[in-house]
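Good morning C.,

I know you're traveling, so I'll keep this short. The sequence:
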Amino acid sequence: MQTETAQLVNEVFTIDDTLQTLKLRLREAQDTLQLLILNKARLEHDLLVKANSLFIDKEKCMGMRKTFPSTPRLVGYT
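The tokens, ready to paste straight into the viewer:
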């Protein structure tokens, strides 16, 4: 009877240790997830800024840029 009780007590300690380890891993995974979400938001913001910059360059600046003479023309090759 004592051996069974000792085995049950050991099993309870083992389960408790496993539970604590799993809780720690869950917290670490949640922290990692939050960092990934933050990085994703930063990357999405960067993409929006770059897409907007390309739009401005193409739609707003290209027309004006086409009115300037080209470099070869400025240098005198054409």
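Safe travels,
E.
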